[in-house]
Amino acid sequence: MVYESKVQAVVLAAGRGSRMTQLLGTTVPKCLVPVCGNPLVYYPLKSLEAVGFRGKDILVIIQDRDDVRRALLSIADRLGLSGLDILTVPEDSEDFGTAESIRIALSSKKITRDALLISCDTIADIPFRELFDFHEIKESELTTLFVSPLQIPENVKLPGPKSKIKQERDIVGVKPGTNNLVYMASEADCEEEVKLPVSTLKSCPHTKILTGLVDTHVYLIKNSLLNRLLAATSERNFISFKGEFMPFLIQNHFLPDFSEYTFKFYACIEPKYRCVRVNSIPSFALANKSGDWIKDVFLNGVIPKSKCKIARGSKLWGTTLGEQCVVEEKAKLTNVIAMDGVVIKAGATVEGCILSSHSIIGANSVLKECLVGPKYQIPAEGRFTNEQLSVMEEAYFGD
Amino acid sequence: MIANKMNQAESKKSGSLPRPPPSEDISRDDVRAQREAKKLAKVARKNKSFKGKLANPPTSTSENEHPVVPSTAQKSLKTGTTSRALEVKPAEANPSSPSVSIGVSADLLKSDSASSSVIHSLFKPKKGKELAQSNVSKLYPPFYNVGLKVRNNVIRGANSQCVKLLDAIKDYVRCYDVPPGTTFKHGLFADLEGNMKNLKTVCPFSISMSNAVQFLLFYLHDMPDDDGKVIDFKNEILDVIDQYIVEKIEKAVEAIVLYGLEKINDGDKIMVYSITEALMSLLVKAAEDGISYELILIQTRETKVELADLLEKLKKPTSDQTVRVSAVNFSSALYKIRSCSKLLIGGHGLFTNGGVMAQSGSGQLALVADTYNKPVVFLCETFKFCDRSPLDFLPLEEYMPEQFQTEDDFLEPKLIYDVTPSNLVTVVITDIDMLPSNGLAATLRVQEGGTPAKL
Q1: Most buried of the four, A59, B309, B338, B373, by CB within 10 Å?
Q2: Which family is this sequence assigned to (chain A) (predicted)?
Q3: Letter string b/e over residues A192-201, b meaning 16 or more CB atoms within 10 A of that residue's CB
């Protein structure tokens, strides 16, 4: 007898990439951003497939877009995941986030078992067995997974404009010994100070604060807890599951009025594993430059060969090209990450840039450390250094 | 120019002390180092001749590069040897004996591998054998849950492990669907057996657990072939399991408590170790009955949880507080035993040769008590009887948890159980009667009328 899996994987892929708009525009949804030749959502699905999840145990929540659906089905074919469950959420409101996705999934009764919530932008060597065992042993209702951040490989400069790289770190407070999760905040949310509520300290006087870890956004959460969440948050509007809802839950469950819920949250900490969350431009560049690590982690994963046209006489060094790129003669590309459909005309010199999809670099132009937005056309003989070039009002430019 | 290069080479060595600028004369230290290096190289060559080709690569490279380094550093720089030679230099902080000796000692380790590897393999951390992917889906999830908890010591104590496993089995039986092509009995038997085999790879079974499973499989085997409804069979099996739990565990504990009460008198000073459910119940009942005795608890790192439990139960206001409790370190037992009247130990398993398995350290305590002529009393239910006769803990599977601290080469194995030989045991209190430990095997055999089938 083969026993049914108790856990349903839920991949949250409806995001718009609000922190990467210069890269994506509205043309490319975040889940289809190419990283080392594969769309971003390929990686969590590959991790799930590698550990044994079958298609019908996976629910993917996406925007209501045809290109996303098609890409998803082709990925499912490649990975052998048949019967993938897809839920579309309407892409209307501005403040749409992960919490909304989950709420819609719950109300449409799509999540029936314990859920493993994975964000589409997590590229990681996820220790599923350790996470599941930990969850079982502790009898926890919500288990988070923290691993070490992926380091920039040596001798690699990340392309893109030198923006003030705000480190996306997570500040986590755990009870040493049992690993109860007592505090969680993102560094971006704490401007100058980290505030620990007194109620937290009263119930857990010995708290260990960890700052060197990154939250993989992989959450194992019991079905009963999910449903209680649905009920409890009907009055408050949460946008982001991780950013707003979880800190709220963790900090408030020590307060007396929450005491009827006995939540048990645990943090599974595995610093031997690495993860990169592709939700900002520097991390996107990092992910693209870490092809070796990705190949190690995703064994048997195929990095498809893209159909590019590269003319003679052009020089490419440390460059990643997406699908259907065209590089004409005497072009010189150094340390460039190009997404799909980029055209680089003859004689152009591009150094340390990120070129978004379908951008056109004019002939004999010189670009250094720029970020070229989607469908932007760099004029011939243009000279740009350290700039973010993007089409402002996308609605005006038709094609 | 040469001196510059030498300095450069040396500055490449990570964090080494700055050496005096080399002149044409080689310093005394250098000469000594060279001599030592040559000696060690000779030993290495000797070992190499014993070992043959296998040892060649490490010794030969260290041999070649090493003694060459100090004296001919200049020469090698001049002749421009391969980068490997230069790499060897920065690798060592002190260019002489250390690295060659490491190469040699590796050989020595290999040569008396017979003794060291046995010890090493004994105390190597036993990685929980990875449950193969295919097996996970064949293992009923509550079993896996129990297995994980047992392995990680969340479920402590033989009795509770057995009860939790039997509960999981009951759950399993309730949910069992007969696959087409087999009868209920055969299908259930085969499936349960397979599940237990898979579970054994997750966690080592304690004696109580294996006995319970064996009993159940034996019963299943003996069940008449079905010509009845599946639900009837299921109910029958559930009843049998319940009966087992009640008879062999709960009632056994009560019986032991009754016998044990005869042994606890007013004014007794009792040293207690390896706290099991039976022992805890006995102490609590004695306190409830108003016997004023004094309790000496042995406290070790592993027993914190059980001691806390016991203290909680003793604190419950029963009769007037007549039990004085003190807790001492394990090493203080040697001193304390002199003033005690007896030593009570909770047993985890009983063997045919009269040996008793209990928490690690009980063997030592029994020896200490025996030296001072204090009676050593073990409390053990009969369902923990095991058909083996180990002389010590080594052949047992579960003597060590899988995680223990290893700082580099320092192995600190954390042993959980050990075996006390029968000559140190005064009496074993079981649910049948109070028995001498080596008479137990015979008594049980006579009682049950034949040996139970092996799993």
Answers
A1: A59
A2: Belongs to the eIF-2B gamma/epsilon subunits family.
A3: eeeebeeebe
Q: Cα distance from B131 to chain A (closest Cα, Å)?
A: 10
**Min Cα–Cα distance to chain B from A318, Å:** 28
Helical ranges in A186-319 per DSSP H: 198-203, 223-232, 246-252, 281-289, 291-297
A338 token code pair: 């190009």
CB-based contact B68:B76 (threshold 8 Å): yes
Distance CA B449, CA B222 (A): 16
Token pair for residue A100?
């909304």
What is the least distance, in Å, from the CA of B294 to any CA of chain A? 33
At residue B69, does pLDDT exceed 50? no
Q: In whole angstroms, give the CA distance from residue B382 to residue B440.
A: 9
Triad B258, B263, B264: Cα angle to 5°:
95
CA B373 to chain centre: 30
Q: Which residues of A touch B136 (CB under 8 A)?
A: 52
Query: Is residue A138 scored above 50 in pLDDT?
Result: yes
Contacting residues of A for B139, CB less than 8 Å apart: 3
If DSSP codes are grouped into helix, strand and coil, which group holds residue B162?
helix
- Measured CB to CB, residues of chain A less than 8 Å from chain B are 1-3, 5-6, 52, 133, 136-137
Looking at the predicted structure, is the pLDDT value of residue B136 above 70?
no
Task: Tell me the average pLDDT of chain B.
Answer: 74
pLDDT at residue number B98: 40
CB pairs under 8 A between A and B: 25
CA A89 to chain centre: 18
Q: What is the mean pLDDT of chain A?
A: 80
Chain B residues near residue A1 by CB distance under 8 angstroms: 138, 177, 179, 191
The token pair that represents B332 in the structure block: 């203080």
A1/B177 touch (CB, cutoff 8 Å), yes or no: yes
Geometric angle at alpha carbon A280, from A277 and A285, rounded to 5° = 80
Q: Which long-range contacts (CB under 8 A, 24 or more apart) does B227-232 make?
A: B230/B178, B230/B184
Give the rounded distance of the alpha carbon of B240 from its chain centre.
Answer: 32
Higher pLDDT, B197 or B443: B197
Q: How far apart are the C-alpha atoms of A97 and B327, rounded to whole Å?
A: 56
The string of DSSP codes covering A91-155 is ---SS--HHHHHHHHHHTT---SEEEEEETTEEE---HHHHHHHHHHHT-SEEEEEEEEPPPPTT
Residues in chain B: 455
Residue A25 DSSP code: T
Residue A74: pLDDT band by 50, 70, 90 thresholds? confident
Residue A175 in contact with residue A207, Cβ under 8 Å? yes
Q: Which helix (H) or strand (E) holds A47?
A: helix A42-51
| Sheet with A377-378: strands ordered across | A309-310, A326-327, A343-344, A360-361, A377-378
Q: Across residues A29-51, what is the average pLDDT?
A: 86
Higher pLDDT, A126 or B132: A126
Retrieve residue B101's tokens: 């000796």
Quote the pLDDT of residue B455: 42
Q: What is the mean pLDDT of residues B276-281?
A: 91
Separation between Cα atoms, residue A345 and residue A343, nearest integer Å = 6
pLDDT (tens digit per residue) in A233-248? 666 777 778 877 787 7
Each residue's pLDDT tens digit, A165-193: 556 678 888 888 888 888 888 877 777 88
Q: Average pLDDT of B194-222? A: 87
Closest CA to A144 of A113, A121, A105, A173: A173
pLDDT of B78: 40
The full set of domains in chain A, from first to last, is 3-167+217-298 (3.90.550.10), 309-397 (2.160.10.10)
Radius of gyration of chain B (CA): 32
Å between B274 CA and nearest CA of chain A: 24
> What's the pLDDT tens digit per position in B147-176?
888 888 888 888 999 999 999 999 988 888
